[in-house]
Design brief:
- The protein is α/β, with parallel strands linked by helices and 192 residues long.
- Helices cover 34% and strands 22% of the residues.
- A four-stranded mixed sheet has the order 3-4-6-5, with helices on one face. It has a two-stranded parallel sheet with strand order 1-2.
- Helix 3 links the parallel strand 3 (75-79) and strand 4 (99-105).
- The longest helix has 15 residues, at 144-158.
- It is globular and about 45 Å long.
């Protein structure tokens, strides 16, 4: 239970934003409860660290994010939907700021679930994520590298000033039998 309790002068300014939308994470829920109701959590950093905690739909939060309040900060967005569910209108503004975006692409969800999708809202989720018809997604089948490639290309398409030569890289994570489960896709406009 060690943590840095004092941030030294001259340390980078940070403003942490945390959004919880899934009640399955009991530890996070406990933290949120304590932050509001108990004395064990105190947001008393007055210098270069600010912690803001919010609950709700992360895409709604991102769409309403006030970039003007964060002009002096570097932004790191870790976008981690539990399923293959990327809302491009929510993350595109972050792809176009001076900052970093890390997307957890649940490629295993699509490889397994797209062909089984029957409900209109599930079909829409896949079509929104890959910007393709469900038939096109199904025809890709279980080619997880191709599914990953689609997301990488969509990220590049959503970056408005491609002359900045954005850095986009996909880092695959495998299970014990060497099956691709998910990829962390890192996007940055800060690479010189």
């Amino acid at each position: 239970d060690r943590c840095l309790k004092i941030f030294p002068d001259g340390y980078y300014d940070f403003n942490f934003l945390y959004v919880s939308e899934n009640e399955r994470f009991r530890e996070i829920d406990r933290f949120l409860y304590e932050s509001r109701h108990l004395l064990s959590f105190k947001n008393e950093y007055t210098g270069n660290v600010v912690i803001n905690i919010s609950e709700g739909d992360c895409n709604d939060f991102l769409k309403l994010f006030d970039f003007s309040a964060f002009k002096r900060y570097n932004i790191l967005l870790v976008y981690d939907p539990y399923t293959a569910n990327i809302d491009w209108s929510a993350i595109s503004p972050f792809l176009n700021t001076w900052g970093e975006v890390i997307i957890n692409h649940m490629v295993s969800d699509t490889a397994r679930g797209a062909s089984l999708a029957k409900k209109p809202e599930v079909i829409h989720r896949y079509e929104e994520t890959y910007q393709k018809s469900i038939q096109d997604i199904i025809s890709i089948g279980t080619d997880r590298k191709e599914l990953d490639s689609i997301i990488v290309n969509l990220i590049k398409e959503n970056i408005q000033d491609a002359s900045k030569n954005p850095y986009v890289a996909s880092f695959p994570f495998f299970n014990r039998v060497n099956g691709l489960v998910y990829s962390l896709i890192h996007c940055s406009k800060n690479i010189a």
